[in-house]
Prior knowledge:
The chain has helices spanning 4-14, 72-83, 117-132, 196-200, 204-219, 240-247, 252-255, 317-323, 356-361, 412-417, and strands at 21-37, 40-58, 61-67, 98-99, 138-156, 160-179, 182-188, 191-192, 222-223, 225-233, 277-280, 301-306, 309-310, 331-332, 341-342, 346-349, 365-378, 383-395, 398-404, 407-411, 419-422, 427-435, 438-446, 449-457, 460-461. The protein has 462 residues and is an alpha+beta fold. It folds into 2 domains: 112-149 and 167-219, PmbA/TldD superfamily (PmbA/TldD fold); 223-461, no CATH class. The strands form 4 sheets. Strands 1, 2, 3, 4, 5, 6, 7 and 8 form an 8-stranded mixed sheet that branches. The relative contact order is 0.14.
Amino acid sequence: MLSQSLIEDVLTAALSTGGDFSEIFVEDRFTNNITLRSSKIETALSGRDFGVGIRVFKGLQSVYAYTTDFSKDGLVKAAKNAAQAIKGNSVISPAPFVQEAYGTLHPIQMMPQEVVKSRKIAVMKKASDTCKNYHSSISQVTVRLMDEEQNVLIANSEGKWAEDKRVRSRLAIQAVAVSGNKMETGFYGPGAHSGFEFIENLNLDLYANEAARIAVTLLDASPCPSGKFPVIIDNEFGGVIFHEACGHGLEATAVAKNNSVFANRIGERVAPEIVTYIDDGTIPNEWGSINIDDEGEKARKNVLIENGILTDYLIDKFNSRRMGMESTGSGRRQSFRFAPTSRMTNTYIAPGKSRPGEIIAATENGIYAKYMGGGQVNPATGDYNFAIMEAYEVKNGKIGKPLKGATLIGNGPKTLQLVDMVGNNLGHGAGMCGSLSGSIPVNVGQPMIRVSEITVGGTKGE
Length: 462
């Protein structure tokens, strides 16, 4: 992508005013986005983005610059501009580069750039037709296909040299159901760190029909009651609540500045013994998986909470300085336009021993959240508010009528402590996560769990 001699010159220029560490991040990204609405192609966009990010440290100072000018003069100028914010007493030279060997954890069979658009559109149309034919109330179907190939090179003044190719593909299906003056929406969006083989091998009947089923089911849903209830949260994307309300609080971005309720609590019990919380970037071909992070560190499995005890944080290189702890391979960024910081990959609650049927049967009067929607969280406190996309009442150990307008209101760390049953059906759901270093692909996951009490906001009181 760039020659070693040029990169060495850039790193040297970045250290010219006394910095103690410099880094270069080179990115070449190809993207495709196709939207099919009502069986017609609405948009078909392809693009290429190339740029370079340069970072300099001096103690607990960090300066970041980026440029799309990859000439020698342009890169050296950007490095020197960044260096102007750093004032040190001595100037060091970069160490010789050592290229680290690692095998890809996520084999790719069909590079998206090599697949003609007509082949992609054929899959999209099949998904759209399947969804539309589910029920006569389905009035509109939107299918989006996204794929990308991101090639990166990361080198730093400590001698690190790492290159990686990341390929991701995702198909998102949205169904709209209408009955009289009622309109409801269902969504399913599977994705993978994989090539077009993932899209072509998807079980379209499953995903398209599920998006349609959600929309149709909600047409006949009753208003959700308000109050405090036991809440059963299903697997896969149900994990978003702990991703937002707990996962962000375990990132060094917040922990290093004591802006997290989990700061300085390693070794403390923060959850029941049945809860183990993991971030694992090594799961083969999962949406949030990586080979290396955006600082060149190998992906790894980080156990954050083990049998209820807080054991680790997610740490990037700069915050490792603040905390006096090693990086956990968690430095991620959206693109060269962002400096990396600590971020999640595939974060999930590990499976327990309870069967889903046992969890439901053990609940006398509660709420079953089959699919979670979006929400908001304050990472400093863990306070959250999440919508439930598809909810049901639970009466006498059985799932009852569908409910709409349900929201979960609470505090992440406190909710974590109230998990009293953990299922054995671990599943993952694909999503995008926004933070200081931009929007990145992540998986959220869990088996079915039960929380003994959460405040449920509904559309009427009981």
